Amino acid sequence: MSEPQTETKQSPNPPAYLSTSTLLWFSLLVRFLFLLYSFYQDTYLPVKYTDIDYLVFTDASRYVSQSFTPYLRETYRYTPLLSWLLLPNVTWFESWGKILFVIFDLITGWVIIKILRLMKVKEAQAVRLSSIWLLNPMVITISTRGSSESVLTVFVISFIFHLIQGDHIGAGVLAGVAVHLKIYPVIYIPTCLLFLVDYTKPCELVCNPLKLINSKTLKFGLGAAASFLTLSSAMYYIYGWEFVEHTYLYHLTRTDHRHNFSIYNMSLYFTSSLSSTNSFEAAQSSYPIVNHLLSTDLSKLAFVPQLALSSVVIPLVYTKRSLSHTLFLQTLIFVSYNKVMTSQYFIWFLIFLPMILSRSSLITTMRAKGIAMLLFWILGQAAWLSQGYNLEFLGQACYYPGLISASVAFFASNIYVAMGIIDSVDGLSSNDGL
Predict the structure, then answer these.
(1) Can you tell me where the transmembrane regions are (predicted)?
(2) Which of 134, 230, 252, 367 has the highest CB neighbour count under 10 A?
(3) How far is CA 215 from CA 218, 219, 222, 270, in A?
């Protein structure tokens, strides 16, 4: 008697709406509609849709088109490369930059999908997770308003992709470009080096730092140094010290206190305002203790916990357990402890969210905690925005307890999210490094 034949069951193909091409085309359509709406709001409504920074970029490009330095435009604090990229704003179409930012935005999402595939995430799940970026209203709004963050995110996520893929030179080159564009990605360099080193406990590297040197780390380091130094040297040759001052040094000493979610916001505000008042000068001569308290800028201490945690502690402890969780954590901590924090900065850690959720218990066994983290973060942000609106649009003096309390609450929500991510790292069933 012949044995019955058994059919091999194949996993069904995901439905069309969960395909990568469908998601990318739909994401493009949504962004196109946002751009169309931006023209309407900018034309007919008193509150403009376009970000003020986009006007700064365009003015800087106009100076470049006339063979001047882009830094003639006050508040232009970026690499001259950005003003070069946006030259068509002046010579062709004023919304060219927005289109470019949308393209980079979409490429970022596409690379996220490629990384998820490298992490062996199923196609349908990869599409769902990448939609956290591609269909995120915050991400879409930021790029279509004319913020340049997507230019940076595409280089950051691309060098992570090449790092995971094993292209160490390519990863280094892209990392160097990212640091040239904006200095904060330098915090990822220690993480990348640790990812390429064989060790089991952080104390091994502390006791023997030479373990950091191998062919992989040398290729990555040389690639990063080559691209960063080449671009920065070229910009310095053309524009001199003002390039270094405005692109890098300014961000180490900036004291913006408007639209600033940071816990140091009020310290920056009072320091900048009190130092120029007659009452402060009187306090200087009559009350030395009061003078000392008022003149102390607590934000100067921000770099200590910020860099210690984001550049040293978190990479050392978590890189070998999960690269994606480490990148998210160090970025979240860097942003949370930064003395200036605007909504654009949230994009910096959102690019890693699909990666960590692909392996996280926060969407499975710890789903309730994941929802609580999301709600706490949204409510903390909403509390600050309500106070910020009262201050900047209605002119209400709500510094204390309103704005200070809201800043503390939002900082606490960020730390709560970080703690939840740490718990999810501890709960990983396997440590494959990704």
Answers:
(1) 21-40, 95-113, 134-161, 173-197, 218-239, 301-319, 340-358, 370-386, 398-422
(2) 134
(3) 5, 6, 10, 50
